[in-house]
């Protein structure tokens, strides 16, 4: 019994994970990027430094006051409205660098997270999210880029550069504002509630952000826009729905409030806490997986059979000469399925040589004077005379 339990624990070990809506902020941010986007971090920094040094000569971004930072962000938003696509992309990269926490001016990861949070709330306060949403809508409706991507045999990162920059900035803003921390300022808490309301209401062209992202998924699945960065789209869609509708804790709280309002007794237990304390388990296997498992077990039983001599196999195959090979295979499968003991060997498969029966002695021909054996008196004599008794 203990051996079976040990084997079961080895096959399905107890996994260590946290049952919740999301992981930590750093883990959720790392999910946004891929290894192929690593060179773009330096490109974002260069775009910011090039424009920032043209306006501020001696100070760094972290050394500026809030009023100076707001003035510079306002200048970036004005440059987002230029018609030149390359200039617009450089400004978008500079804004993304601010949302990433101006990592070149920080020494530790804690400093990067601190300035990223500070810059995100500053960007939202200046109306950056609405400006990015307008640019995203323009990129979605860019029929020229869609038709060019459809004609290409392979899609590269260069085909989705603008979309990736916009979606990355919007994802950082949504995820950073959504997460509450202990050191949040009062104005940040108020901005969080305002942002939640805005995401659930029509923001651009009478559509909420979630509906716009669902439209991008639909275009990508119908092969009308294969250049859409679908991973970033789905991540932003997931966090938008989670932010506007709430997670597991909000659902449990809503259940409790509705039951109190209707005069119902409280819930006997918190289902979320019960699930969190349960052991990790795999989902049930599908029908195809069960069939494959049975076939593997059947092949394993056949491989454990002892070797059989060729004479026994020939005798077994010649037992019914009117059966073809397919019928014999079906009969073997049915015999294996009916057998209740694993490894039991068929008696015909044992290491035994079946000896043919001994030949019968030939009878002597009848005497010439007898017309037939029936007319001869006594038993017929053999061709050789018996030896005389001593």
Automatic annotation (TrEMBL):
GO biological process: cytoskeleton organization
Positions of the Far11/STRP N-terminal domain: 12-314
Transmembrane domains' residue ranges: none
GO terms assigned for molecular function: nucleic acid binding; nucleotide binding
Domain of life, per lineage: Eukaryota
PROSITE patterns named in the record: DNA_POLYMERASE_B
Pfam families (UniProt xref): N1221
Gene Ontology cellular component terms for the protein in this record: cytosol
Ranges annotated as biased composition (Basic residues): 298-307
Compositionally biased spans, kind Acidic residues: 327-346
Pro residues bias (residue ranges): 355-380
Composition bias type Basic and acidic residues, residue spans: 316-326
Extent of the signal sequence: none
Xref: InterPro entries: DNA-dir_DNA_pol_B_CS (IPR017964), Far11/STRP (IPR040185), Far11/STRP_N (IPR012486)
UniProt region (Disordered), positions on chain: 294-390
Protein name listed in UniProt: Far11/STRP N-terminal domain-containing protein
């Amino acid at each position: 019994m203990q051996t079976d339990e040990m084997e079961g624990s080895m096959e399905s070990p107890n996994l260590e994970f946290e049952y919740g809506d999301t992981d930590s902020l750093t883990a959720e941010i790392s999910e946004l990027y891929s290894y192929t986007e690593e060179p773009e971090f330096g490109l974002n920094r260069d775009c910011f430094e090039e424009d920032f040094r043209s306006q501020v000569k001696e100070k760094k971004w972290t050394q500026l006051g809030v009023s100076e930072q707001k003035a510079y962000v306002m200048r970036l938003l004005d440059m987002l409205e230029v018609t030149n696509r390359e200039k617009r992309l450089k400004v978008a990269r500079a804004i993304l660098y601010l949302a990433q926490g101006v990592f070149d001016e920080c020494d530790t990861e804690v400093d990067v997270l601190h300035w990223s949070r500070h810059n995100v709330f500053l960007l939202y306060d200046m109306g950056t999210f609405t400006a990015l949403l307008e640019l995203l809508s323009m990129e979605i409706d860019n029929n020229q880029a869609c038709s060019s991507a459809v004609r290409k045999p392979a899609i590269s990162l260069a085909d989705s550069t603008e979309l990736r920059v916009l979606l990355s900035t919007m994802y950082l803003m949504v995820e950073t504002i959504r997460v509450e921390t202990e050191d949040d300022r009062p104005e940040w808490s108020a901005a969080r509630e305002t942002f939640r309301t805005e995401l659930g209401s029509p923001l651009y062209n009478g559509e909420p952000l979630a509906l716009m992202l669902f439209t991008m998924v639909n275009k990508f699945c119908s092969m009308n826009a294969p250049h859409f960065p679908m991973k970033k789209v789905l991540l932003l869609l997931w966090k938008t729905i989670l932010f506007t509708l709430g997670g597991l804790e909000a659902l449990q709280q809503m259940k409790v409030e509705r039951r109190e309002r209707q005069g119902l007794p409280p819930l006997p237990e918190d289902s979320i806490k019960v699930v969190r304390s349960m052991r990790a388990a795999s989902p049930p296997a599908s029908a195809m997986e069960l069939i494959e498992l049975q076939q593997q077990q059947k092949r394993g039983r056949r491989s454990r059979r002892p070797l059989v001599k060729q004479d026994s196999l020939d005798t077994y195959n010649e037992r019914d000469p009117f059966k073809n090979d397919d019928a014999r295979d079906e009969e073997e499968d049915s015999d294996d399925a009916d057998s209740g003991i694993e490894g039991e060997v068929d008696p015909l498969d044992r290491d035994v040589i079946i000896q043919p029966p001994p030949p019968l002695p030939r009878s002597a021909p009848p005497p010439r004077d007898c017309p037939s054996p029936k007319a001869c008196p006594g038993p017929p004599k053999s061709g050789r005379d018996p030896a005389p008794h001593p």
